[in-house]
Amino acid sequence: MERIDYRVKDAKGKEAFVKWALLICALFGVLALFSIAIFLFATGTPFIFKTGFSSFFFSSDWKPINGRYGILSLFTSTMLVTLFSTLLGGAIGLFAAIALFRFVPKSFKKPCSFAISVLSGIPSVIYGLFGIDFIVPFIRDYVATDGSGYGIAAATAVLSIMILPTMVSFTLDALNAVDRSYYEGALSLGASREMALMKVVVPAARSGIFAALVLSSGRAMGETMAVIMVIGNRPNLTIDPFQSTLTLTGAIALGATEYSDDAKTSLIAVGAVLFALTFIVNLVFAIIKGRDKKC
Questions:
Q1: Which residues of 136-151 are buried (b: 16+ CB within 10 A; e: fewer)?
Q2: Distances from the Cα of 275 to the Cαs of 41, 221, 282, in angstroms?
Q3: At 188, is the pLDDT very low, low, confident or very high (cuts 50, 70, 90)?
Q4: Local confidence band at 11 (pLDDT 50, 70, 90 cut-offs)
């Protein structure tokens, strides 16, 4: 009589179950992404063409209650806040990660790393309160010329602090992933610690640093509550960092529970623009990263 090995069958059944469970989990992320995209573009795109493409994108008159849906000021403010906060927070985060990687004494490394990681768990509304009580008054009293502290500068300062944990943690992981022989080889050739780090280790970790910048810019672009609290929320088309303005996410948050009919549909159209903008930013970084690898 042929003997059946039930343990082998049981193992194969478990493997098949795990395989399908992992596949379903992976497909769930893809399904969620496409569901959100379909919802936004199926509703938002017809509204954009109904309003008029030029009127929607090239007008700065944003008053949905009155039937005016120009998002140029919102778009400009969003891009400026994202750019400035990514540059400032990215630079501070990069140098902080380099310091933690090599120059900070071991007795201070863990406390510094812990303090930075705690920043990621603080609710965004706390950052907003900090901005209102400290950053806005400082800008108003010592920096701004017109006596107003609300605007792009205040939002940039708050967001720069918010993206620090992301920038530092991912950059530090990228630096730690570089083979130590790179650093030691540079030292053996006569390079100083600083030169070996900046000329050899950091360039070798640039792929991970790019990833940190992508995630940081996404956090800055999508942040809502803290930005609403310090930017002033007036849809002004301005490049003055000390003038009150409004971002795409702020416009959605402020009107989501108050608007109805076409005004609410306009917020979905703004969401579609924000979704497309986030996709384009990630795509550009991916192209830059791909070209960097080829070089």
A1: beebbeeebeeebbbb
A2: 9, 10, 11
A3: confident
A4: low
Place of tokens 């891009």: 79
255 neighbors 156 (Cβ within 8 angstroms): no
Q: In whole angstroms, what is the distance from residue 125 CA to residue 253 CA?
A: 14
Query: CA–CA separation, 55 vs 62, rounded Å?
Result: 10
* Cα 233 off chain centre by: 20
- At 26, list the tokens: 């992976």
Nearest alpha-carbon partner for 104 in 186, 159, 199, 175: 175
Residue 246 has pLDDT above 90, yes or no: yes
Mean pLDDT, rounded, for 257-262: 82
Helix-helix angle 261-294:72-98, to 10 degrees: 40
The answer for residues whose C-beta is within 8 angstroms of residue 240's C-beta and 6 or more apart is 151, 152
